[in-house]
Amino acid sequence: AFDVRVASTGCTYTVPPGRTVVQVLADHGVDVPVSCEQGVCGTCLTRVLDGVPEHRDLYQTEEEQAANDQFTPCCSRAKSALLVLDL
Ligand code: FES
Predict the structure, then answer these.
(1) pLDDT tens by residue, 23-80
(2) Exposed/middle/buried for 15, CB within 10 Å: 0-12, 13-18, 19+?
(3) Domain 2Fe-2S ferredoxin-type, which positions (predicted)?
(4) How far is residue 46's CA from residue 59's CA, in Å, rounded to a whole number?
């Protein structure tokens, strides 16, 4: 599990194994637009202000993924204990 923090509210939520960041945020009324939910379309692309994502998308280039300043919360996870999201 890892935590995500919504920068605009400061609220932090835990993402357990088997659930996605998008699902956990939706539980708390934070809606991220999604389409494919498989890391292909880029609709859910969200800026990451702090922390290191574990990219599982096929949308970004390797270079974009390596920058670690955005990720696809429909399928990607975190390598760090916390991700701070620009939401
Ligand atoms: Fe398509 Fe996340 S919804 S990449």
Answers:
(1) 999 999 999 999 999 999 999 999 999 999 999 999 999 999 999 999 999 999 999 9
(2) buried
(3) 2-87
(4) 12
Structure token digits, residue 57: 């998308």
Atom 4 in ligand 1: which residue has the minimum CA distance?
39
pTM of the model: 0.96
Phi/psi at 66 (5° precision): -65, -25
Rounded CA gap, 40 and 33, in Å? 14
CB-hemisphere CA count at 13 Å for 49?
Answer: 10
| Count of alpha carbons within 13 angstroms of residue 58, beta-carbon side | 5
Distance 14 CA to ligand 1 centre (A): 20
The pair of three-digit structure tokens given for residue 23, joined into one six-digit string: 């699902």
For the Cβ of 44 lying below 6 angstroms from any atom of ligand 1, the answer is yes
